[in-house]
Amino acid sequence: MKRTCSARRAAVVCRSTAAVAQGSSTRSLHSAQPTQSGHRAIPPHHVHGPTCPCSAAHNPQYFYRGLLGAEGAEARASLTRPGVRFARRTQSTPTTHARLSSSAATGGLSRSGPKESEADYAFEMAGSNIRFGVGATREVGLDLVDMGARHVCVFTDSTLKDLAPVITVLQSLQDAKVNFVLYDKVKVEPTDASFKHAIEFVTQTARKVTPTGHFDAFVAVGGGSVIDTCKAANLYATYPPEDFFDYVNPPVGKGKPPPGALKPLIAIPTTAGTGSEATGVAIFDHVERNSKTGIAHRRLKPTLGIVDPENTKSMPPQVAAASGFDVLCHALESYTAIPYDQRTPRPATPLLRPAYQGSNPIADVWSLKSLEMLAKYFVRSVENRDDTEARAQMALAATYAGIGFGSAGVHLCHGMSYPVSSLAHHMTYKPKDYNVDSPMIPHGMSVVLHAPAVFRFTASANPDRHKQVAALLGAKDIENVRDSDAGPVLADRIIELMKRLDIPNGLQALGFSSNDIDALVEGALPQHRHDSHTHHRTRTHARLHTFTYAHIDGDRVLKLAPVPTGQEELAKLFQQSMQIW
Predict the structure, then answer these.
(1) Pairing between strand 217-222 and 265-269?
(2) 85-86 and 32-33 as β-strands: parallel, antiparallel, unpaired?
(3) Hey, how many other C-beta atoms are within 10 angstroms of the C-beta on 567?
(4) In what residue span(s) does the Alcohol dehydrogenase iron-type/glycerol dehydrogenase GldA domain sit (predicted)?
(5) What angle, rounded to 10 degrees, do the helices at 486-500 and 463-472 form?
(6) Tens-digit pLDDT profile for residues 173-200
(7) Four-residue CA torsion sign, 235, 238, 243, 247
(8) Hey, what CATH class is 121-314 in?
(9) How far is Cα 19 from Cα 71, in angstroms, rounded to an integer?
(10) Which pLDDT score, from 0 to 100, does residue 117 have?
(11) Helix count (H) and strand count (E) of the chain?
(12) Parallel, antiparallel, or unpaired for β 151-155 and 546-547?
């Protein structure tokens, strides 16, 4: 009897493109309306073929037939049928596209690509396959069999290796008779050195235990650090570069794209925050430059993300709080980011369109739903770890937010958090409920500490959106709130959550002071290469480290802020974040 793909047995399989194209929630938020001209919103020559990285067909080793068969065809057709466009403010219209096309002769849009000064007119959604369900982790062995994988490398960290999520995964692999090797040395908040250690382990071990010298697939069981490290190991082991920084985002690295499809990777998150199971980004600290950077490409997206609420039971309260605030900021930042059709420069070819593209109708759906779920379940999930419903819904909210910001991107809260995290080892702060030997600031905490100041600042770009999300978070009488008060109202809702869930009162509580603002600003601004003349010597706490910083995406997250943000604005925001209430 023919084997039934385990994906079809999933509790819930989220096919983002098909679901959004056909779902009623999308129609309610962004009504599809015919244009007066009757033109298509997306011209047929811009519909990507199966070899494009945004297509599920690009990874020939594993796919779900629903996405590539009639269902996928129907979804793609719904986006290109005549007379349909998304109704949304300030977006490019078919008329705009016709105007751009007619200007091709003058260089506006030609075979060699448009002028870089022009804004983009399209966005893409390339989400991972997601499975959600209590106990879904137990299916991973069957998934690997369906993929044809016989030799697998499992990634986790030293804390998780003896806990239920990893034990369940290894038992599933044994039951399915899949050979595996366990790598349990992942570092929380990875560095370039820890990435290299993982890559070396994979490369050398595969030569010893596999007939081909390569693992057939990877499984990551853990939080964002584990999943990101596994993504990097998959990339570097599959396509070894001449230099480690070949794939790293500019300006630290060369930003070269992966030459082809990677090995299948199944991501099984054990926290409800990063959304890494749905993104093509892997973040690490570059220790020598005292900076945080990463690798960003659609091909890094996991083949399958298994979101199993059982795996978050072991998450302590403060870990759940920091993770949840990361979800909050993912959703808020992606929903308030610059609209995709205002982002510049327009890519010369579709393949050069960045992973983070600005707010767009599809990402909006995921972000808003994530915020709706967070408002209902976040506090419950932190204050009662036995509240299985709340933990389950927050796990799902994290994935929703990951799908949203995986397309739209993030902006100032995250951009400002990275220099804070990079300087953490100069401080003495050790967070409660984290098993760490040295000072560390949890990612979600470093992000949300900037959120009140950031959203007061960005609200003028789109007061309606800021008021809308404030209402989702519990603000009353929002229809009577003046546009000028949209930012403060949203900030107050965030602060109320921070107080209730015992988040420190600003950067000062972590050991920073006003004397650090110059270094923090320098760290948040887009930098040149390490050998440039833009280095900054920190002056406090005997920090004599040259501080540079590269954003997680070559497009730089600060450029996705809805309002222009330079050195002066960042300095004010950091100052306002020193003490929040």
Answers:
(1) parallel
(2) antiparallel
(3) 12
(4) 129-309
(5) 30
(6) 999 999 999 999 999 889 999 999 999 9
(7) negative
(8) alpha beta
(9) 10
(10) 60
(11) 19, 13
(12) unpaired
Provide the token pair at 148.
């044809």
Amino acid identity, residue 193? A
CATH of domain 315-580: 1.20.1090.10
Domains of the chain, by residue range, sit at 121-314, 315-580
Give the C-alpha separation, 120 to 274, whole Å.
Answer: 28
Question: In whole angstroms, what is the distance from residue 129 CA to residue 301 CA?
Answer: 9
Q: Is the dihedral of CA 454, 456, 458, 459 positive or negative?
A: positive
In terms of residues, how long is the chain? 581
Average pLDDT score over residue span 78-99 = 37
SS3 state at 548: coil
The predicted pLDDT at position 574 comes to: 98
* Residues 255 and 554 sit within 8 Å (Cβ to Cβ): yes
- pLDDT of 103 above 90: no
Query: Distance (Å, rounded) from C-alpha 344 to C-alpha 117?
Result: 7
DSSP H or E stretch at residue 491 = helix 486-500
Mean pLDDT taken over the chain: 79
pTM value?
A: 0.74
568 has pLDDT over 50: yes
**Residue written as token pair 């995290």:** 421
Q: What confidence score (pLDDT) does residue 526 get?
A: 58
With a cut of 50, say whether residue 549 has pLDDT above it: no
Q: Where are the beta strands (DSSP E) in 297-398?
A: 304-307
